[in-house]
Amino acid sequence: MLEIRPLGLDGVLEIVPKRFGDARGFFVETYNEERFSDAGIDLRFVQDNHSHSAAAGILRGLHYQLPPRAQDKLLRVVRGRVFDVAVDIRRSSKTFRKWVALEISAEKGNQILVPKGFAHGFVTLVPDTEVLYKVTDTYSPQHDRSIRFDDPAIGIEWPSLSGEFQLSDKDLKAPTLAAAEVFA
Ligand SMILES: Cc1cn([C@H]2C[C@H](O)[C@@H](COP(=O)(O)OP(=O)(O)O[C@H]3O[C@H](C)C(=O)[C@H](O)[C@H]3O)O2)c(=O)[nH]c1=O
């Protein structure tokens, strides 16, 4: 019922729940605590988020919350497509500053699990993209942090889209990884 694929960094997973298609369309259990637990994913989600991005090229990230309010995130796309990125920001990790990326789309019905200790971001690939995600701690502005999406020390190979990326002021002013407060 759950297809799980490690993406090459500690605990960052692609998850594809089984989709039951029929002449009417489809049904899918997008999250089932028991099935996730059976797959070794024991997380307690306490908040659901929904973001709508009107255009392609809207980039949100790289974001994370610091301990003690760090969040695991389980993200899926219900309309459109995103290029989704997770970056290891644990200074003691052997994969510190390494990143992985995955296309997540409504059509594929896939999800990404981004554990605590990772910065997360995505860029939309088509207009009117809607992203839903569950997090394991509630929003804490005091612990909310950003890192520059284009930090050369990380070197994310974002897709080249026509036109400039659109970012929030907060993300445009984000520090580099070297200047950011991250995980030990
Ligand atoms: C994240 C969050 C935000 N907000 C408020 C704060 C701002 O007034 C407004 C927009 O927040 P922000 O610009 O941080 O939203 P995004 O740029 O979509 O941020 C998210 O995008 C990337 C992809 C992430 O991984 C994070 O989960 C999250 O930071 O919503 C809340 O009230 N609760 C929340 O949990």
Describe the structure.
The chain is mainly β and 184 residues long. The chain has a single domain, classed as Jelly Rolls, CATH 2.60.120. Helix content is 5%, strand content 41%. The strands form three sheets. It has a six-stranded antiparallel beta sheet, with no helix packed on it. A hairpin with a 6-residue loop joins β1 and β2. The chain starts with a strand and ends in a 12-residue tail after the last helix. 32% of the residues are buried. The structure holds dTDP-4-keto-6-deoxyglucose. DTDP-4-keto-6-deoxyglucose binds next to β5, β6 and β11.
Portion in strands: 35-45%
Q: Low-confidence parts lasting 5 or more residues at pLDDT below 50? A: none
Shape: globular
Name of the CATH class: Mainly Beta
Listing every helix as H and every strand as E from the N terminus to the C terminus, the arrangement reads EEEEHEEEEEEEEEH
Walk across the major sheet and give the strand order: 1-2-10-7-12-5
Structural class: mainly beta
> Major beta sheet, specifics?
6 strands, antiparallel
Give the total of domains.
Answer: 1
The proportion of residues forming helix, as a percent range, comes to under 10%
Predict the CATH topology. Answer: Jelly Rolls
Q: Tell me the Rg in angstroms.
A: 16 Å
Mean pLDDT: 97
**Secondary structure tally: strands:** 13
Q: What would you call the quaternary organization?
A: single chain
Note the gap between the termini.
36 Å
Structure ligands: dTDP-4-keto-6-deoxyglucose
CATH architecture: Sandwich
CATH superfamily: Jelly Rolls
- The helix count comes to 2
